[in-house]
Write a structure and sequence with these properties.
Elements: H1 3-31, H2 47-80, H3 83-95, H4 99-114, H5 118-131, H6 139-171, H7 175-202, E1 205-207, H8 212-223, E2 231-234, E3 245-248, E4 255-259, H9 260-265, H10 268-283, H11 286-309, H12 312-317, H13 325-340, H14 344-366, H15 370-383, H16 391-397, H17 403-411
Helix pairs in contact: 1-2, 1-16, 3-4, 4-6, 4-13, 6-7, 7-11, 8-10, 10-14, 10-15, 11-13
The structure holds zinc ion.
Zinc ion binds at residues 277, 281, 355, 358.
Length: 412
């Protein structure tokens, strides 16, 4: 075993072990309340819904833990048994060693390694979600989504990969700074194009229909200076009864999207509060902040790929004969998560701070915290959200504060 393989095993065991421990802690926390709601949560949901949400949390956690173990085992085999070098040798044997061949190889490997996870995805959607009444997809729709998703991924991903791999030859040592620039611009462009071009391939987006609700939401949008061109409704109910609302884009391209399931589940006053929260994200400049922090990560990522791509030991350590930028991207994408996982509490902390700010904005915009609080309670109930996560678990996994944390913050 090489030193690099030993580091890999250690990082894999450490991350997977931590994740399993977090799941275990979270399940223990949920089981503490098997007799009913803790006092601090009384009135938030009825006992029956609370019990059901605990069951849902436990089921997801157990299933997620098996999936995590399975993924870790697959990754360990792929990296340690020399699967990648063998596949690469086989590939270059007939496809050559051109940049085009490298880019295609990367796509091939990504598709190949997504296959073992498919049964888990199927189980999650058609067994687990189904059991708790959330699934509304059909097997046919699910397969169509997979096929369409792969095609879209190929059409966008392949030229992008090919371009990145060619940069070294075209630009020399500083290719990675240009690579970062290209990816950064790509990300910004996708923020605009994704809802316009890609999302309609999967969902129907339509403007919120005329009427009292629309008038009310548009009035809020004007009052807060957001001045929405339109509010869009997405047919999320096609696949799941989970509900959501989100804000995307920037400047002229900003848009607010409500799930049709959200409109079914909440009253007008509550929907107004949810919209105010989304407008809060815009007014407080959260999108540019998120773009900036992801740009920093991406810059560091490109720097790391460039460094690894020019290090013989990196390729030798994983059983490759010679350095290859495409392979550096591949190994980085497969293994990078073992290290970036440890940053998730920082990014979640930032995200939760933004949620508090958006809540505060909403409270002021609608004149009271009551409608948002009712909306959040309604959403927790309909989505069977876990109200009592373990603090360590929420630090790693929660981009949003819990319902109670949000209500308390609004009361201050
Ligand atoms: Zn939010």
């Amino acid at each position: 075993m090489t030193t690099l393989e030993a580091i890999f095993i250690f990082a894999l065991l450490f991350k997977t072990g931590t994740e399993l421990l977090l799941e275990f802690l979270n399940r223990s926390q949920v089981r503490k309340y098997s007799d009913g709601l803790p006092q601090a949560l009384e009135g938030v949901m009825d006992d029956e819904t609370f019990a059901k949400s605990n069951k849902y949390t436990l089921a997801k956690s157990k299933f997620g833990s098996w999936e995590m173990l399975f993924d870790a085992a697959v990754l360990a085999v792929v990296i340690l048994a020399g699967v990648l070098p063998a596949l690469f040798q086989w590939w270059t044997g007939f496809a050559g060693e051109s940049n085009l061949s490298s880019a295609l190889f990367l796509i091939f490997v990504m598709v190949l390694f997504s296959v073992p996870g498919i049964p888990f995805e199927y189980y999650s959607q058609f067994k687990l979600e189904e059991r708790f009444g959330f699934n509304r997809s059909t097997v046919k729709l699910w397969i169509m989504d997979k096929v369409k998703g792969s095609l879209v991924g190929f059409v966008i991903g392949f030229p992008l990969l090919w371009l990145l791999i060619n940069l070294v030859g075209w630009l020399g040592d500083y290719w990675w700074i240009y690579g970062f620039g290209i990816m950064f611009v790509f990300q910004i462009v996708m923020m605009v194009l994704y809802p316009m071009v890609i999302m309609p391939l999967f969902n129907k987006l339509s403007p919120l229909e005329e009427g009292e609700l629309r008038d009310r939401l548009m009035a809020l949008s004007d009052r807060t200076g957001f001045k929405a061109q339109t509010i869009q409704v997405i047919d999320g109910s096609k696949r799941s009864s989970h509900s959501n609302a989100y804000f995307t884009g920037f400047g002229k391209f900003r848009r607010i999207v409500l799930y049709d399931t959200l409109i079914e589940q909440l009253g007008h006053e509550e929907l107004e509060a949810v919209l105010a929260h989304e407008i809060g994200h815009y007014k407080k400049g959260h999108i540019p902040k998120m773009i900036a922090s992801s740009a920093v990560m991406m810059f560091l990522g490109f720097f790391a790929v460039d460094y690894l791509a020019s290090s013989e030991w990196f390729f030798e350590g994983f059983g490759f004969e010679s350095a290859n930028l495409g392979i550096a991207f591949l190994l980085f994408s497969m293994i990078g998560g073992l290290f970036t996982f440890w940053l998730s509490p920082i990014f979640n902390k930032l995200s939760r701070k933004h949620e508090y700010e958006a809540d505060d904005f909403a409270k002021n915009a609608v004149g009271s915290s009551a409608p948002l609080s009712r909306a959040l309670r309604g959403l927790s109930e309909k989505n069977l959200s876990n109200l009592t996560p373990h603090p360590a678990y929420s630090a790693f996994h929660y981009s949003h504060p819990t319902l109670i944390e949000r209500e308390q913050a609004m009361a201050d």
